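thought: user wants a sequence for this fold. calling inverse folding tool.
action: design(structure=
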């Protein structure tokens, strides 16, 4: 497609500003051009972090001599022609700004040969010499050259004519890291394109073309069991990628690469949805690694909002937020519980609890066959609207009657184990609305339950903690929690730092139902606690909160304090280990667990459930 000068009124509609900030921005613009030119292979080379030398070479469609000359004019582009085109941009470039901007701040050489042309051309731009003038710079050429099809472009001595800008560049290694990052991002977004990056003659990245994202992700990240795949297609918005899985030590920290229609962007709406999803899943969230691809019709997103094309504007911002938040929560909530292995497949290897499956390259998929393993899926993440502040939790002390706990006669109540014919056939007909049935309690600490796909061992304390954590955060949105006044206020002694931490969050704590008053000296008086807590837990819970909140960053977000308080409360209000439970209570806990958004890990990241899959049982009975 031929390059034309944009009419001035259209040129004026384009988000204006500085295009070239650093070597990485030059690389970004040149790689975008290569991709728009349909390149299948792109080779990038830099020296001294890109300050002294950048070359981007592609095997795309190339340019004619006339186009090559025009490409250096401001507002000259082959990608849009009318202002209507701005409403649905399908290319990475559209401003006709990048090449003239780069050429005006570097010693610039463009070589190109159009596909099918007999020869190529070369144009050199150097403010210091040459003959003709373009946009204030002086150019040499076009000059006919022999060249392979495609376009290599070189930019040397960036900002050589703008010493003030050059001074603001970071160290070579810092600039080179930025270049690596941007090339890695492109490589993830364009698996079908081959990328190489060389820095100071050293090969930093080499990714031959592959079929799809999982292969490219493997080329770049190798095996990453700490990432969980995401794939959703709601409301015409296609979401794919890999996100940090929930883990005991917290989701892995790392870059948050977000792509909208394969364009790398920063976006507050997206960032907020990510933070939200993780913050309700775990209190160890901070900066989880995320590689997220969002694709939607180009009409639904405005890319003409930022001079370096680093931001976009969604026409339906809240829809995108909602869709993304749900998809992330689903992906996180459906991470599989750790699986138990009865006997090692390889003799000599220790029997193991295998970690959550990476699903990337895993052989498990092959074992399970098409359709995959039925997952421990939350039944629903929507629950009936709660009464403000009121919990109806049969496991919490306030809701229980004083009747002594009767250990359940489980077999009869489930009607599963003692099936009349003594067969296990009925188990395969478990109704879909009752997929997990508790059988009994092991050592008054673990609930043993079954579903069609195997056996689950649930840590009752951790499970209840997860349930309460989500319920507490949920109820908090509709007002303060129910509080109970202590008949005898409790006095506790705390360090000055801990007292301070508590008083700093007094308002937050009162939303949860705590009434804490400084009592002089080191003492603090606990006048009220959340109704959810047992009286005898009051002092312990407040101490734990003091420690938690003291450890919190001063500059931390308010939400983080709320989540910490909720997690600590959930921990103290949850049923303990070594506590006998009636069958009804087990059933309540199991069904509530299935209603939580994230049922496999507690807010601190510990596993809630261990699963012994059916295939493992069958294998060991040699029924496989
Ligand atoms: N590597 C390339 N291969 C083929 N054509 C190219 C290449 N690089 C640039 N061009 C042509 O030169 C034109 C100008 O490129 P430039 O990057 O300055 O603007 P743009 O890509 O149209 O918009 P933007 O400023 O948003 O990047 C492009 O529209 C394209 O036609
Ligand atoms: Mg461009």
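)
observation: tool returned 624 residues.
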């Amino acid at each position: 497609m031929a390059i034309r000068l944009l009419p001035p009124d259209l040129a004026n509609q384009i988000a204006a500003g500085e295009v070239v900030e650093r070597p990485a921005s030059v690389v970004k613009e040149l790689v975008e051009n290569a991709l728009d030119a349909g390149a299948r292979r792109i080779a990038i080379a830099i020296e001294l972090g890109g300050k002294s030398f950048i070359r981007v070479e592609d095997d795309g469609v190339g340019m004619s001599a006339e186009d090559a000359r025009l490409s250096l004019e401001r507002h000259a582009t082959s990608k849009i022609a009318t202002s209507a085109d701005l409403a649905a941009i399908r290319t990475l470039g559209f401003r006709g700004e990048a090449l003239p901007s780069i050429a005006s701040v570097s010693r610039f050489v463009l070589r190109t040969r159009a596909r099918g042309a007999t020869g190529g051309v070369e144009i050199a731009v150097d403010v210091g010499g040459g003959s003709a003038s373009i946009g204030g710079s002086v150019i040499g050429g076009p000059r006919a050259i022999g060249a392979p099809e495609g376009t290599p472009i070189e930019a040397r001595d960036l900002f050589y004519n703008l010493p003030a800008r050059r001074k603001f560049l970071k160290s070579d290694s810092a600039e080179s890291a930025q270049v690596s990052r941007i090339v890695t991002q492109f490589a993830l977004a364009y698996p079908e394109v081959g990328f190489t990056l060389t820095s100071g003659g050293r090969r930093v990245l080499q990714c031959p073309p592959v079929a799809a994202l999982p292969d490219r992700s493997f080329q770049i990240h190798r095996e990453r069991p700490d990432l969980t795949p995401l794939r959703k297609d709601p409301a015409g918005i296609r979401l794919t990628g890999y996100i940090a899985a929930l883990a005991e030590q917290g989701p892995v920290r790392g870059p948050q690469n977000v792509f909208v229609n394969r364009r790398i962007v920063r976006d507050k709406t997206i960032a907020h949805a990510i933070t939200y999803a993780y913050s309700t899943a775990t209190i160890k969230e901070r900066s989880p690694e995320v590689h997220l691809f969002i694709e939607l019709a180009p009409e639904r997103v405005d890319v003409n909002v930022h001079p370096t094309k680093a931001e976009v504007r969604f026409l339906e911002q809240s829809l995108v937020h909602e869709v993304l938040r749900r998809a992330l929560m689903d992906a996180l909530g459906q991470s599989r519980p750790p699986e138990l292995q009865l006997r090692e497949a390889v003799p000599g290897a220790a029997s193991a609890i295998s970690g959550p499956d990476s699903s990337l390259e895993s052989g498990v998929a092959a074992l399970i066959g098409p359709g995959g393993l039925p997952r421990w899926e939350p039944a629903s993440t929507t629950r009936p609207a709660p009464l403000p502040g009121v919990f109806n939790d049969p496991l919490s002390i306030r809701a229980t009657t004083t009747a002594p706990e009767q250990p359940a006669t489980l077999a009869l109540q489930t009607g599963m184990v003692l099936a009349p014919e003594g067969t296990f056939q009925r188990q395969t007909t478990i109704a879909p609305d009752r997929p997990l049935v508790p059988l009994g309690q092991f050592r008054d600490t673990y609930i043993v339950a079954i579903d069609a796909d195997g056996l689950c061992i649930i840590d009752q304390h951790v499970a209840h903690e997860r349930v309460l954590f989500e319920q507490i955060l949920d109820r908090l949105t509709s007002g303060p929690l129910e509080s109970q006044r202590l008949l005898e206020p409790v006095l506790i002694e705390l360090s000055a730092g801990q007292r301070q931490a508590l008083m700093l969050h007094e308002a937050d704590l009162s939303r949860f139902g705590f009434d804490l008053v400084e009592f002089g000296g080191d003492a603090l008086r606990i006048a009220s606690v959340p109704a959810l807590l047992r009286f005898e837990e009051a002092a312990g819970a407040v101490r734990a909160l003091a420690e938690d909140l003291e450890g919190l960053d001063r500059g931390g977000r308010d939400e983080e304090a709320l989540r910490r308080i909720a997690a600590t409360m959930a921990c103290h209000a949850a049923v303990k280990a070594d506590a006998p439970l009636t069958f009804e209570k087990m059933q309540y806990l199991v069904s509530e667990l299935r209603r939580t958004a994230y049922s496999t890990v507690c807010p601190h990241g510990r596993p809630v459930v261990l699963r012994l899959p059916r295939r493992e049982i069958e294998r060991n009975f040699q029924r496989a």
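thought: summarizing for user.
answer: Here is the designed sequence. Confidence is low (pLDDT under 50) at residues 129-133, 345-386, 397-434.
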